[in-house]
Amino acid sequence: MNTTLLQVICCTIKHSAADFKVVEVDPSGLPVDALDYAQPATQPLLSSSEGMSVVDRAAAAPRWDVLRSNEPLERLLAEEVIDQLALLARSDEALPVVVGQVEDKQQRGALRCAIRWHYPNLVTTLDGSTLVASRDTDVFPALERCVGCRDANLILKASIVPDPQLHMHATFLDSATKDDRRAFHAAFQKACSGLFSVVRDGTISITSRRKSVAVKRSREEEGATRVFTHCVVHKRNVETQRMKELISSHCGVTDGNICVAGMKDRRADTWQRVSISGDVRSKLPSGLCIHDGEGSYIMVAPNSPVIITGAPLELGDLNGNKFFLVIRCTLNAPVDDHSADVLCGTLAEKLETFSTSGMLNYFGAQRFGRGGLPGIKILQGDWCGAVAMILNSAPEVAREALYATGDFGAFRKAVNPRTHRDAHLLGECLLEVGRRHSDAALSVKLADILAQSPAWAAACRAAILKMPFYLRQLWLHAAQSHIFNKSLELCADNVSMGLLVAMPPKLPLVGSLDVVDPTTLLVLTSLSIDVSCFATGTVAGVPLRGSMRETVVTPTCCNLRKVTGRQADSPADVWVECSFTLPSSSYATVLLHQLCGLEPTDAPM
Predict the structure, then answer these.
(1) Using N-to-C axis directions, what is the helix angle for 105-118 and 139-160, rounded to 10°?
(2) What is the pLDDT of residues 389-445, one digit of tens each?
(3) HSE on the CB side for 394, CA within 13 Å?
(4) Whole-number Å distance between alpha carbons of 535 and 466
(5) What's the rounded Cα separation, in Å, for the pair 267 and 566?
(6) Who's near 442: CB < 8 A, 6+ residues apart?
(7) Alpha carbon distances (Å) from 412 to 408, 419, 423, 446
(8) pTM of the model as a whole
């Protein structure tokens, strides 16, 4: 047989979860599924402040409910710094106070909160990593003009130490003008997000924002508690967001308080580190298994102990991922053992070339989902197009009913939230927009939907902004990735695989950073996206700061061999086992695409 005429016409992966194994590699270079795996050292728990520097004292800051007297501040700062802060709080003419150099973000949060509690008329800013205190010329004066110094102090302190039972009153001063009251409400909304205010007959009633679920805390607040549970989770056929939901339900925390170093494939066996805010070791014993339907589960990996540390995981806090894959290569003609061996040898040589020369660092197809790219429509300002794209991912019977009646309630009921999550949630948001807004501009009828009227566009925008943050973030990050892929494709058009050294080392993930190169500008123009839409740093409520991404990455630990003893579905099939390690944010499917010359497809479930 002439083996030179053989070529792979189909590359199929994920025949089972065991055929697609992904193991996170921690920052020290260790795979997290290793026997007796010990997690890398993070911020230790602190219990004493004796003999500590300013930075160490900030790290040992007590919880918010302890920051009520001067005693903790004396433990956090030197006496001369406290004296300078007190003078600054009393005098308008005092110069700003240099508090100290604090490198750790979480430690800064504890220290800034303590200073704000004791001196509400001061604010702290950063000059590099140096913390500087100065007089507040924005929030505190706006509150003081309306309710006086004493009540302004009490309001700001109440915002720092939330009390679920809080119920306080303040009265507007007779001297407060209408503009002063507007400034008060703007300052209150800016500085007191955990409080709720109602004004009646000149009296302000202030209560805590009560919620039925745990309140999602900022990273600075989390850093102040200094307690995080870390474990290794083995999941099978469960996506990362669903894993967070299962853990949050089991441990009684919000999924926003669960952090991972990176996202992992859904249809796969994956091992990764997870951190949960608080000490929940008693709820996560080693070997705990939480099932999520037939063949789907998450398990606390028994190979590594569950520990508590003083810092959460950060996205990107990993060295890469190790992949173990079984691939079915379907060729254009039946093959015998010899030709199969020749094919595997050719693929192994090409994989070895990747380990020396590198491969193009495209984003994989799974980054973009199967429902189009609504993030591109949002960047174009086409809210109707974004909604239509998401709704079109729903079953045809639900779409036909919607465009025949305009009934979003019926549409939502006809869509399965497990199989068509985005469309189901968007139906809920559109229904809520129609119920809650008395604004005529948001009152839409079937004719508005079919005609894409301004009222429909306004309703679409409001509904998109009501969608969960993680979905909006997913869409817009997918749009960034699509733009990067298009830019990389343009750069690679005239570069052969052997000349990847000629590629620009990095291309931008476009955002508010002023690093847009001519190639990316060309792509944005072709997509009808105005670069000014990134100027504010946020799009649809999602921060898009932007960054740079490598154009070429080098896989390591590459191995490829023919699998024997596995039943072939066709005489043209060759089973191949492949393993390699990729840096974080690189895709195994992209490597397979460049290895076999075509996009790999998932086997039917």
Answers:
(1) 110
(2) 988 888 888 888 887 887 777 888 888 887 888 888 888 888 888 765 444 444 567
(3) 27
(4) 22
(5) 21
(6) 433, 434, 455, 458, 459, 462
(7) 6, 13, 8, 16
(8) 0.64
